[in-house]
Amino acid sequence: MGRSLVIIITPLILLQIITSYVFFDRSWNTVTRRLASGLAGDIAFVIAGTTERHESNYQEWLLTQARGQFDLRLSLVEGETLPTPDKNYEGLVQLHLAQALQERVGRPFSINWNHTKRDLLIAVQLDKGVLHIEAPHERLFNDTTYIFLIWMVGSSLVLFTVAMLFMRGQVRPIRRLAEAVDGFGKGHDISSFKPEGSTEVRQAAAAFERMRDRILRQIQQRTEMLAGVSHDLRTPLTRMKLELAMIKPGPEVDALRTDVTEMERMVEGYLAFARGDDAEAVVPTDLANLVQEVVDAALREGGIIDFHCEGPVTVPIRPIAFHRAVANLIANAKRYGDNVWVTLGHRTYGIEILVDDDGPGIPTTLREEVFRPFYRIETSRNPETGGIGLGLAIARDAIRRHGGDIVLEDSPHGGLRARLRLPL
User: Which helix (H) or strand (E) holds 422?
Assistant: First the structure.
């Protein structure tokens, strides 16, 4: 919207600057010069009348006519001498009037621009005294100048307001489309979204709706396929467990039973990663209670965990997916550290959950690699006690579906810190 307004307003401002320059340089300058010349001509006419004919009656008649016809109030002070006039004229009007008086009158003069609020005073040195002329300021100023400025500024404000309202109406559908795309990415219900706005925006919205429908169909097909795969894989595993239960116990049978249990756990992990959490609805959830449940479950399995919540936090999330993500982070920290610290609180950008441990940590160069599915760090973490390499991948995938992210950092406790960020 800002760029669009600049595109609209910049030519308007340039046009006004050029128009103002042309007007003041040409029209206003010419009009002011002619007004000053007219005033100087009237004064020169009166002076010529008073100097050429010395009859008192004629001079009184001339001063009266000057007041009535020229709107000039004149008074002659005989014997007065005009002091040295100030030649520093400020402004275009003063300069034009001074030049006109020099050309038309040709006598020493002075100008008092602030004689009264309404009038200026011009004093001209004559042979027998000083002629004082009071002239209204309107003789030198044209109302067209102010009318032009008012119309120019007023029309600019009107055009700017219309442009702003128009652009706001054009930008609003784009913002709604962006909100719908962001909401769909976070799993929110956007069934109320309708294409609106200009033709191009409606085309983009229609393309988004078609993309949304294709993604939903693919998710549904994947869910149905994974349900079938889950059933097909669990059926033989269940038969194997039943057959092992009927066989006489022994070292070989115990080893085989352990392998079947490990295989079942791996299958569940693969399916959990592939299935994702698309079918789960987004509901307002108290994160403090959710994280506390995860911590309590981890404590029942053993370990030392310190949980600190900075205040009540309620956000719309997928509870099961978020629960699994936090549980994977805590399980990962507990597996490789003796002590675990969990912190939940508000930040300027949203919600933050910190999971710290005092374990061996992860090298900086590998902190992105560990989020790859099935990736394990055998050099820094014991592969005998590790999982199948899906815990962090599942956790980051779940949080990114909420619009957040998980990053790994150095912990102040000497181990690894998992920083979970969730925007509001």
Answer: strand 416-423
